[in-house]
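To whoever is covering the structure queue this week,

Two jobs came back overnight. Logging them here so there's a record in the thread.

Job A:
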Amino acid sequence: MSYNERLQRFQENLSAVADVAFFPMSADLQYLTGTPRDIPNFGWTLHPGAWLEGIWITPGKDPVLTLPRMTAEFGGLSDLKGVQLRVLGDWDDPATLVREILGKFDLPAQPRVAIGDRAHGETVVGLQTILPDAKFVSGTDILRRQRIIKDADEIATMRKAGEITEAAFADVLPKLKHGMTELDVMSEVNYQLRRHGSLGESFTTSLYNSGPNHPLIFGHKEGKSARELHPPVAILFDFGSIYDGFCYDYGRTVSFGEPDAEFQRVHRLIMEAQAAGIAALKAGEATCEQVDAAARQVIIDAGYGVEFRHRLGHGIGMDVHEPPFLTKGSQTVVQEGMMFTVEPSIMIFDKCSARVEDVIVVRPGGGEKLTNGFQSLYVVD
């Protein structure tokens, strides 16, 4: 589906819910127009008038993308195709530009304004000043109806993201050595992702490592990343690539040192649980709760239920985590073209642990995996 088709469909859906919509720089905006996102910074980088950075959409009229000069010029966005672009000068008043644009949209006296969920509070405050009688609704909820089902081109893009991710992992494995720090491993993953064509990491590369002499720690990243990895220790990878705006999410388990019988059993169980969850992803036949239960029961029956500490998975696409979620309590029926991660784990704080994660497309007869490599427990002697 082309960007123009996506915009037209959104405008049709918008007309019943709101009079105008605003989406900031986000997956929503990239989905509708192809306007690329950058890798986010830890600290906020602010340009004058940044609160209007995004697109304004109303039914029946051409959308308008507004950008501060620094974003347009230094972000390489001045020559975007297929969208009307207005650039705010460094000393110009953003409210004046927004009033001009909204004035041409012929809004009613009490307009309904759909705001993307990633918009900043400053944007809402600015709009309240310009449109004091406006009623605000979620624009992301409206757009999600389109984004939740992926078409063939989107699935192909995600498949390519999976290929990049697995190629990176294949080149990480020979670099693994006893005594490396967790930071060494994460840095190698991030380097290999970029080397194989990823814009960067789709989320912060994470490791969940445990062993008798290497306790599993959640959080406290600065401290734990300096820890050396000496056998016996289980290394649980969680990372993904970015390709053409789509985010991959991937997990595998590596053993430093020969795995004992329990470690081998734990790894076998998570692979069996994943297979059960994938098989349950039958379009139109199962709820998200039922898919979670199918995988979880494998681990519960083996006596490790409390060590499966999270939901089975989540929707994924241009954001790493998207609704719906494979979790208890979700009665959403899975539909063909939805994409989910299926990521069972067994995490034991002071012993062996294991996890696996792949992106799965919902199909009539069960899920289709987009990555299939490294199914066995990889051992670094």
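Job B:
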Amino acid sequence: MGIGKQAKVLTKKQSEMVLTHLGQHTQNGVRNQLIFLLSIKSGLRAKEIANLKWDMVLDCEGAVGDTINLPNSSSKGNSGRVIPLHAKVRELLIAMLEQAPIALPDEHIIKSQRSKSVSAQVIVNMFQGWYREMGLIGCSSHSGRRTFITDAAKKVSQVGGSLRDIQIMVGHSSLQTTQRYIEYDTAAQRALINLL
């Protein structure tokens, strides 16, 4: 995929703007914020967001745990994995759990008003509508995933990790695929050259 065809990476300011908009100006604000954060803070694909069930995030006592345990059946190919939960994602999952009358383990977390689940295409359409409303050109449901991978790549060495850790978290079979998602940063390149 050429660089011009990839979904745009969101800046921190744009991400905060979308999150605020979803919380204040959309019906089902908590659900919509969760969908958005599952993309930019967990790196999930639209299909994975649509297929997320309570048993993938609940611990043995029925409380929201510390990870998303994503099976292959809910992902693309054999890219099931365990993803640590970001604090904001966990907070919204807890809020969703409190809103649910009963959270059955095999019940989908993301629902519509008319259905107990949504398709990946519905998630794609939601992102498309939100970005269009906000005037974010070139953004798609994959923008959150690219943002997650790019942000993680910039910070992974600070915690003693590597691109391999990111590859595992996002479920890529190849490190080269993960590298193609990372947005380059000319300011970082200039700063790096000045350090040499």
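Note for Job B: The chain has a mean pLDDT of 91.

Please reply-all if you pick these up so we don't duplicate work.
Q.
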